[in-house]
Design goal:
The chain is 31% helix and 31% strand. With 160 residues, the chain is of the alpha+beta class. Helix 1 (45-58) runs parallel beside helix 3 and helix 3 (79-92) runs parallel beside helix 4.
Length: 160
């Protein structure tokens, strides 16, 4: 009997400083006119949380273990690139991916108009369904103050 395994991932990034602007990459999409996120890679908190959830479910480490700052080849890497690689690592470890669900927490950008586009890109990267929902924190905490973005994800995998 194959028993599904679940994993949880979390990622958070502050907005880049105004004196060192970066483009905003979130959920595999570029958001023109929005302030980008600081980070070793592109700062795509949605893609990073999804990758971390896959690693958690499969027991293959975490985002830092696989793509940490000690890995210069991942500096400025696309979140989609990291997600593709995470899915490969998970499958190589003997798992099939059931799905990934991500909750984005932040005041901006307005996510709903591009949800379907984001889900298509992320699902293609994972090779399984990825859904993304978004919420605010009602003005509370760093996301509520507009200082950054957070994302939490769950993933289901099955040993094959």
């Amino acid at each position: 009997m194959q028993i599904p395994r679940t994993g949880i991932g979390f990622d958070v990034h502050a907005f880049a400083s105004e004196d060192k602007p970066r483009p905003l990459w979130l959920a595999g999409l570029e958001w023109p006119g929005e302030r980008g996120l600081a980070g070793h890679s592109d700062g795509d908190a949605v893609a990073h949380a999804a990758a971390d959830a896959l690693f958690s479910a499969s027991g293959t480490g975490d985002l830092g273990t696989n793509f940490g700052i000690d890995r210069p080849e991942y500096a400025r890497a696309s979140g989609v690139t990291l997600l593709i690689e995470a899915a490969r690592i998970v499958r190589e470890a003997g798992f099939e991916i059931g799905n990934v669900a991500v909750q984005l927490v932040g005041n901006r950008p307005r996510f709903t108009p591009r949800r379907e586009e984001a889900e298509t890109i992320l699902s293609g990267a994972v090779g399984a369904p990825v859904t993304v929902s978004a919420t605010t924190s009602d003005g509370l905490g760093f996301t509520g103050r507009g200082e950054g973005i957070a994302a939490i994800a769950t993933a289901v995998v099955v040993c094959v």
